[in-house]
Amino acid sequence: MCGIIGYFGKEEALPILVNGLEALEYRGYDSAGVAVFLEGEVKVKKSVGKVEILKKSLKNNFCSGSHLGIGHTRWATHGIPNKSNAHPHSDCQGRIFVVHNGIIENYKELKSYLQKQGHNFKSETDTEVVPHLIENFLNSGKDFDIALFDTLRMIKGAYALVIIDKENPKILYAARLSSPLVIGVGKNENFLASDPSALIGKTKNVVYLNDGEIAKISQNDINIINLKKKKTPYEIVHLGWDLEQAQKGDFPHFMLKEIFEGPEVVRAAFRGRIKSKENLVKLGGLEKVADQLKEVKRLLILACGTSYYAGLVGEYLFEEISRLPTETHFASEFRYRDEPFDKNTAVIAISQSGETADTLAAIQKAKKHGLMTLGIVNTVGSTVARETDAGVYNHAGPEIGVASTKAFLSQLTVLIMMAVYLSKNKNSSKKLLEELEKIPKKIEIILAQSAKLEKLAEKYKNYKNFLFLGRRYNYPVALEGALKLKEISYIHAEGYGAGEMKHGPIAMITENFPTMAIIPQNSVSEKMISNLEEIKARKGPIFAITTEENKEISSLTKDIFYIPKTIEPLEPLLTIVPLQLFAYYIGTKKGFDVDKPRNLAKSVTVE
Ligand code: M6R
């Protein structure tokens, strides 16, 4: 969840660290800090709040001329956001400087052991045990490499660590266990980052560290060893991401830019993969398991947050199109269930970042039970992509806004293609694929009417609660629409299947409790109309997302946003877009930083 950056190379380190931290800020923004080596000294600067504040404090050529440094932006887990809890953390002597992402679960016992040995702690963090443990081993006469190995062996939990040893400034150390860390490979320079997006514009060549690996990096060299002290080979992965994709351009926020990327994101997901005239879906990433997939009788979709809601749409898609019984579970619940498994079950893990701790743990559990695991992942080379047996990349480009928007559209597109791929009756898919090709244009029509949504957001922005209702394919859209509003505007919102409304939530309906109704004309719109009648009878305001074909809705409300018509399985690709924009406009009208909503982090790498 925290952001880590490290640099060793020919360029001035500090601007690279600060740029990297700005790019990583979406991972955590409680406090930030840097440590840079110059002329035998390591200088540290920390600040509370966003990276902007750290940047302002780095005046008067702070450490100019340094070529080696580390930086961190924090999402607090242990200890409040203040300067002493901000990273980098150091040992008693001020020799070792550490930035950390993850949680050291046994830090309390390690801390009390080290305190008994005379170590003086300055923070409430779990991280601070790392430099002190290394120091403790150094004090007992071990050299740095051995001290680091012994320290890593004592730590329980998850870590991505980057470490400077002031006594050996020719090496930058890094270690990983269950928390992502990537090496950026440059010319006469190397980088370390918790997320490859921090390296965009610097290098497109990266090496993903595996669990239990330690990297020793210099300006021109990368050495990777495992905890058994054996040198391990590494593979350089080429990222296709461009600098433009990681910049806001003319948009005021990444969130808005990413919503407006919707049409291209859907195109990029199906480009080269579908041939509607031949009813053909070609998913290269699944070829190696194509024969095994023919034997699959049941699917389990595992994911968190927005990816979970995409998975819920997937449940309807696989059942209707592939005729495969499918269940979608929160990865965080699945990992602790004790259900019986059938070997003909395949797991599909969905993750934008590919680094979500719960999703990774769910994959491990599935593998332990011998299930085939597939990934739907946006970040190339990420841990989910590497840990699954096969998978399909989203090709959505980097998603910087903390609230996931474009990733949802690309996940839905991939799920639709996978449902056709797994279908035994391909002939029925022609219409679906033809319609899918028309979706980008239809999203453009929605985006062109964003001013209407902005007006409606103005009207609705002061309500304190919202109910989001949908049925069938639009039930998960109701859940995702409510999540977006909560994340961005801090307004309480609940998503519900419209049929369930009368079993409880209707009790809350008053003239101060509006309902967002997702009701395109389809097989269940008649049923939805009856549900909305019940709301109107209780004076609840209604805002409807619908299609021109739905004539009945105008008798229930004047607040209507029309979207183009498509076939039912594809509706979520259209219905979610106005809800994303609605959340965006309400959030910005309330003056919130919609790209970095409070308490959230983009990539949830702790449990
Ligand atoms: O990277 P992932 O798709 O695995 O992330 C899952 C969730 O943490 C993520 O979707 C989260 O719910 C977002 N804040 C939603 O906007």
Would you give an account of this structure?
The chain is built from 18 helices and 26 strands. By secondary structure, it is of the alpha/beta class. The chain has three domains: 3-244, Glutamine Phosphoribosylpyrophosphate, subunit 1, domain 1 (4-Layer Sandwich); 248-437, Glucose-6-phosphate isomerase like protein, domain 1 (Rossmann fold, 3-Layer(aba) Sandwich); 448-607, Glucose-6-phosphate isomerase like protein, domain 1 (Rossmann fold, 3-Layer(aba) Sandwich). The strands form five sheets. An eight-stranded antiparallel sheet has the order 3-2-4-1-10-9-11-14, with helices on one face. The longest helix is centred in the last third of the chain and has 19 residues, at 571-589. It is globular, with a radius of gyration of 25 Å. It binds 5-amino-5-deoxy-1-O-phosphono-D-mannitol (M6R). Residues 304-307, 351-353, 356, 359, 402-404, 487, 600, 603-604 line the site of 5-amino-5-deoxy-1-O-phosphono-D-mannitol.
CATH topology of the largest domain: Glutamine Phosphoribosylpyrophosphate, subunit 1, domain 1
Number of domains: 3
Residue ranges: pLDDT <50 for 5 or more in a row?
none
Question: CATH homologous superfamily of the largest domain?
Answer: Aminohydrolase, N-terminal nucleophile (Ntn) domain
Largest sheet: 8 strands, antiparallel
Q: Counting H and I runs of at least 4 residues, what is the number of helices?
A: 18
> For the record, what CATH class of the largest domain applies?
Alpha Beta
* List of distinct ligands in this structure: 5-amino-5-deoxy-1-O-phosphono-D-mannitol
Count the E strands: 26
